[in-house]
Structure formats: structure tokens, C-alpha cells
Amino acid sequence: MTYIDFDEEADVAETTQAMQDAAREVVVETALGALDLDAKTRLLAGQDVWSLPALPEAGLASLVMSDGPIGVRGVHWSADDPSVALPSPTALAATWDPGLAHRAGVLLAQEARRKGVHVLLAPTVNLHRSPLGGRHFEAYSEDPYLTGRIGTEYVRGVQSGGVGTTVKHFVANDAETDRLTVNNLVGERALRELYLAPFEAIVENAHPWGIMTAYNSVNGPTMTEHHHLVNEVLRGAWGFDGVNVSDWTAARSTTGALAGGLDIAMPGPGTVFGEALARAVRDGEADEALVDEAVRRVLRLAARVGVLDGAEPVVTDPPDAVDGEALAREIARRSFVLVRNDNGALPLRPGRVALIGAAARDARVLGGGSATVFPARVVSPLDGLTAALPDGTLTYTLGADPNTELPVADRGFELRAVCRDATGQVLGARSAPSGHLQWTGSDLPEGVTHENLHSVELTGSFTPRESGTHTFGIKGLGPFRLTVAGTTYYDGVQRPAGDDPFLTFFGPPVPHAGVELTAGEPVEVSLTYTVPPAGDHPLRVIGFTLAHQDPQQDADERIAEAAEAARAADTAVVVVATTDRVESEGFDRTDLRLPGRQDDLVRAVAAANPNTVVVVNSGSPVELPWRDDVAAVLLSWFPGQEGGAALADVLTGAHEPGGRLPTTWGSLTDAPVTQVVPENGELPYAEGVFIGYRAWEKHGRSPAYPFGHGLGYTDWTYDSVEVAEAAGTTTAKVRLRNTGDRPGREVVQLYLAPADPDPTRPARWLAGFASVEAAPGDGAEATVELPRRAFEIWDEATGSWSFVKGSYEIQVGRSITDRRITATINV
Ligand code: BGC
Fold first, then answer.
1. Of 25, 133, 163, 643, which is the most buried if we count CB atoms within 10 A?
2. Annotated catalytic residue 247
3. Please, what's the b/e burial string for 780-812 (b: 16 or more CB within 10 A of its CB; e: otherwise)?
4. pLDDT for the residue numbered 2
5. Is the pLDDT of residue 4 over 50?
6. How far is the CA of 251 from the centre of ligand 1 (A)?
7. What is the predicted pLDDT for the residue at 769?
8. Among 73, 121, 182, which is best to mutate for testing ligand 1, by the most ligand atoms less than 8 A from CB?
9. What pLDDT score was predicted for residue 503?
10. pLDDT number for residue 551
């Protein structure tokens, strides 16, 4: 399934890389020879949350890893060293532009180098199996081919900057419910044709230096011990020569993980490798040859990224510097999907604009969980439109609050975390990016250790934007004291429960104080957490949240105010959003509704002004029950730090929205695959190969917006498709024309449909795509090579790929349902 290369230079670079790999192997062997058993097993375990130990006897420096995928957070949960925040992976996939993914990768490598990070824990290439998956914003698509194409160039981009990747989470981590223990039962065809396919494509086309094995089990074994999928498939059949790192705390057995092909158990220091592995070897329970294999792979990675003495890193001359803000803005506007544009509502016509919605002011630019980074700035839609529209033409109204519980204290807060010992002596301090504090393992301020740390005080000021009763609350476990403006409102112990260590961060906050405050007048705020004695969990985490909510006005009044503002304007732009209680790591969604009263808000605004444009700020599908009653709907995903500027670019028409749906948007009632909750620890992927559009078509259901759909600001006609076959390669040449009145860019999509329907295969599937640009009236030509894999199925009887001969229609168009021209081929 070799793809058309994005860049021939990349091929040359890969060949050179292969030759250099051989030279590095020699250095790797020498380094391996310098290590005794204890050193070797130490190297296979994190020395802390993000790094491996340095081994000076082998000339090895410490190898540092960091999340991923939309930025590089670095080793601290802190805003002291901010990171560029790119749009969510769903947004990157919505560009359908592997070249842009490559450039994102180059930027991320630059960020990683700046932060001393050698390996980026990304990309996430699990599939959107069900729309309920809580972490879909962090994955690309429901389609394995699109996921593979985007993921391939992302990896190539990062690695072209000399930084490693860990393609994750291998494999079938497609939902979050019971993710640490669930046994996903996936049929062999679905596994090969869907879930493994992006990993396979990336291994073949981008040669990633790492992979991350998932928490979950697949058909029995847990993924960190999956001999078959790791040793036989990934390494054996596919020839993966990189390192296999566990997801954080996923490795649970010393001998099982070693035999299952795991190389690095993260995080440390307490892991199943390290001393436990040395002991197992000495006791004759683990094979030292396997330890050597794993160490070899870690040393190879170290050599590639340049932390092994004597080995030339893969990249000695990093690519030219990338302007992160400019790229974040470009990706965002190229990712926005205009799913509806009635009567040319967009671009905005001159006139008064009523901007409405909490997320228009407090933009949600990224999804929650380990993918969080702290950007130096965030451009909200309000900021972006204020800068772009003529003075005096923009009004802002909140409309509805999407938060159904107290959000993290953020806007208006300036906080520091002060650490003290048992005597009250200050040990150290660090600035806090928000009211959410999350220090994992040794990620503690200078001078602080888990041994001497007794309490953490989040302290600073809060300047209200509004006068009225402000609510303060706490999320977290243990003893807390909350003081606002000199009054202590809470001094007690909070005790929720849960198995997943990350649940500590994901439970709802408890409100403890209602405080009358005046807009613009700062007050002192303090939340002190007394650290409980260490339990026996190997991973020490200091995590808690100061939560805050602005004064709550009557919800109906707020909506009425927004409708009033809309009535007085020429256009109403409503930004609706999900929250981090809807889309985040660690849990799935239970419905696809917009939280709070946002649906009511849109209905009221649309009733007041027919020229209503809705911007949907979510990382993955939500239901839009009012979609046919508004003039335009623009999906902006989690648009990254420059989202508001990009939004202004697109709304004003300075740029057209470039995105196409990487995943089907429809209602939960119609969605064909909705089971994400395991029963008795097992989650059967009973739908087989029918997920996403494959399933919608099979069930004959019409989604709100189909896969591939997205409008620009011009029109296209599809004139012809010619198909040629040479040396076993099928190539389609598509001619089309820009028939509108402005320049545009079109994503030409090719679907392959067997002429004789076969109930075991989808009706059609994405087999290729390409983008073209043309001026008004001009023609354009797209040449798309169809990979051999597009014609193959996994034959469960023989355990191999089987080319299915016969007659196929190549259907070319603008989405899975908007197919404009076809050609028939016999293969
Ligand atoms: C996530 C990974 C992430 C790791 C480290 C895990 O909870 O599943 O994607 O890389 O944490 O933050």
C-alpha cells in the first residue's frame, strides 16, 4: 500500500537514512556491550515520568519524551515554558492535506528540540469507531486510509526534524470506558482492514522510530504483552525496527511484557522492568537475549535522535525555522468545514455582526487530558473578529453557558503553586497555568520532593469580569482549605473513588463558596492541598483543581438578550462548544448533545435573525438539531491557539474554509455503532468492518453531514475521469473546473465500489484523494494513484491479504454521497 510520495526528497532522505542506520547499528552494538544486566534493565524503565536514565558507561544521555499530538508540552505541567498549540488532530485530518500534516510535524520537531524533548508521544491513529469515543478529537478519522495518509506525513515531518514519534495507541484503543482493563474483541478482518491499517501504512511509509502500546487488551492479551500483534505482525510482517513504549502505567507484568515485545515501561521509577527485570533474568524467568533485543532498540532510538555518543543522528541539519503562530492559523482555516451555506450567507456581508456564545469569548482551543499544552496566547473568536471587522460593527453577548458544572479557574486568575514542608517552610514554587494543577512523578518545582512535600497552596489574585456572586469549588481527593478575599469557605476532606489514576482529574468539582465580587476589583484567592501519605501506587501524582464560575444570570434572560442582539444586527454569529467535561481523556460521551442551553440559544437567535451563522467549536461530532433553520454552519473543531484569527479569515472571506469531514456527523439515534461500554470486561466489535460511513451506508441511514462533505466559496464541475493501469498500478486522472467567481481549492475524492455488491464488503470506500487549486473559470487536473490495498481484503482462512478481482466503479466526487463522475475498471 505504498502511497504516492508527498515529496520525492523524502524518499531520498529515507534511502540515506537506511544507510546511516547501518552505521548506527555498529555504535549500538558497542554501547550494548558496555552495559551490564542492571544497567540494561534500568534503561528499559523510566527514571521518572518522562525520561530514561543516562548511562555514561555506554555514552548514552537521558532520552526525554513528551506529549503530543497538537503541541509539545515538555516535562512540566506549567505555563512557564509555553508551547505552540495547533488545531486538534480531527482538524488536521479535515484538511485532507498530508503536506500540511508534514509541516505540522516539522513545527512540532522544532518545538521538541527547543524543549529538550527527543521523542514526541504522537500521533494518535486510533479510529473513530463510535461517535461516543471521548478522545476522538485526538485521533484523525473514521477512515483508515485517510488516517494513514495524515499520520504518515505527520511522522515524516516530526522525524525530518530529528525527533522521534510513538504512533499510538497500538491497537484498538478506540474508546475510553475501562480503557485500562477492557478486552476488545475484534475480528481478524476488522483488525487488519481498519484498526491496524493506519499503523501498517505509517510503518511502511514513514518508518516511525517508535510505537506506543495501548492499555487495552485485544482478543485476550493486553497490548503491552501482545506477542502476536507486536512481535509477529508489527515487527515480523511489517518490519518495524523502532522502540515499543508502553502507554503510561500500561505495563503490568515483567516477563509477560518482555516476551510480548515491550521495550520501555513508562513512567518510572517504579515499573515492571528495571530491578524487577534484572531479578527475573537472574532467577531464570526472563531471557537475557530478549533484554538485549529491547536495549538494542532503545539504543537505536537514542542514536537516531542524537543522544548516543559516536552515532550520527538521523538529522544533523534541522529544517528551516517554522513560524508556529502562522502555521497554527493556516491549519485552522484550512480545517474549518463549512457544512451548510444557504444563500451564500458566508462570507459575511458588510454590516453589523452580533457575536454570541461563551466560547466566542473564552475559546475552547484544545481537548482535555494528556494532549493538553499551554500556549503563550489564545486568539478567541471575539479577539479575531474585533481585529478584522470595522470599528463599531461588532457586539458581543454571552447567550448560554456550556458548562454544566464549575469550570477550571482560568480567565482573570493569576496563580502560583507554593510548596511547603510539614513545618510550613516554603520549599519551592511554580507558576500555575490555570486552577488545574497536575504534577506527575518527579515533575515538581525545584527544591521539592515527594518526601519533603507536605502541602501545595495555589495562591494569587482573581479579577472578576462581572459583578455578582462568584462560585468557587474544588476538584480532587484529600484535605483542602479554600480562602477567598480573606474568608475561609472550606476546610475539609474530599473523597471520590475510581481505578483509573487519571480519574482524579476527571471527576466533577464540588462547589464550596459563593462570594459577592465587583467587576475589575481583584481579590486574593488561596486553595491549600495537604498531600496525603504515599500509597503503594508506583506513580505519584499531585493533582487538584480550583474551580470557578462567573455569576449566573437567569438562563432564559441570557438567551433573550442574545436574541435581542441578533435582531439588531445584519448577521448573528453564534459560537457553540463542548467542554472538557464532554470531550477529554479518560471517559467516553454518553450523548452527542451540546451541553447546557446552547441548542435553545441557537433556536432563539435563528428565530430573531434568519441570517444566523453557527460556528461549532468541538473536537468531534455533536448533534445540531436546528441545522436546517440557520443560514450557515461552520465546524471549527478545537482550532488551536490562533483559532479566532483563522475564524475571522474565513468568515470575512479573506480565505475560504478548506476542510472536508474526516468523520460522519449524525445523530446518536441514527449512528450505527454506539457500543463503547464493555460487558464483563469485554467489548465486542460486533459490527466487523462496518464503522463510520461504511456502516451508515450499510444500514441505509442518512447522516446530518456525510464523510468527505465540506463547502468552499466557489463551485466546481467534475468533467471527466480517465483510468489507466500500468505495471499493476491503477491511476485515475480527474478533470474539473472552478465555475464560481473566486479562486478555490477542491479536495477530489475517489471511492472504490465493487460492481457486484458483496455483503462482506462496504458498498464503497475511500481509495484516494488529492487537492487542486484553480482560478475562476480555470480547469484543474488531479492525478490519484489507487493503492493495491484498496482492492484487497484480509482473508481469514489463509491469514493473508487477498486481491479481489472483478469489476469496480471508481466514483469521483465531493463526499461519499456527492459522487459526480465514475469510471469502471476490471482488475
Ligand atoms: C495517554 C497517552 C499519553 C500518556 C502520557 C496516557 O494516559 O493515553 O496518550 O501519551 O498518558 O501522558
1. 643
2. yes
3. bebebbbbebbbbbbeeeeeebeeeeeebbbbb
4. 45
5. no
6. 13
7. 98
8. 121
9. 56
10. 94
Question: 452 falls in which pLDDT band (50, 70, 90)?
Answer: very high
Contact between residue 83 and residue 373 where contact means Cβ atoms under 8 Å apart: yes
Residue nearest ligand 1's atom 2 by CA: 247
pLDDT digits (tens, 9 = 90+) for 538-595: 678 898 999 999 999 999 999 999 999 999 999 999 999 999 889 988 899 999 999 9
Q: Where are the beta strands (DSSP E) in 80-198?
A: 119-120, 164-165, 167-170, 183-185
State how far the Cα of 488 lies from the Cα of 72, in Å rounded to an integer.
38
Mean per-residue pLDDT, 788-793: 96
User: Which ligand 1 atom lies nearest to the CA of residue 369?
Assistant: 7
> Which residues surround ligand 1 with Cβ inside 6 Å?
67-68, 121, 168, 247-248, 370, 502
Alpha helices by DSSP H, 404-539:
503-506
**Best mutation site among 67, 502, 503, 587 for ligand 1, i.e. most ligand atoms within 8 A of its Cβ?**
67
Which residue of the set 48, 143, 174, 247 is catalytic? Answer: 247
Q: Distance from the CA of 603 to the center of ligand 1, in angstroms?
A: 39
**pLDDT of 488 strictly over 50:** yes
Distances, alpha carbon 425 to alpha carbons 194, 483, 542, 544, in Å: 56, 20, 19, 21
Per-residue model confidence as pLDDT tens digits over 190-203: 999 999 999 999 99
Task: Reduce the DSSP state of residue 643 to 3 states and report it.
Answer: helix
Residue 625 backbone dihedrals phi, psi, to 5 degrees: -65, -20
* CA neighbor of 110 nearest in space, from 330, 318, 372: 318
* Nine cell digits for residue 1: 500500500
Mean pLDDT across the stretch 314-341? 97
CA 381 to chain centre: 21
Pairing status of strand 523-530 against strand 541-549: unpaired
Domains by residue range for the chain, with CATH: 6-75+83-305 (3.20.20.300), 331-404+554-692 (3.40.50.1700), 413-549 (3.90.182.10), 714-826 (2.60.40.10)
What's the chain's average pLDDT?
A: 95
Ligand 1, atom nearest to 166 Cα: 10
Task: Give the integer Cα–Cα distance in Å for 311 and 32.
Answer: 13
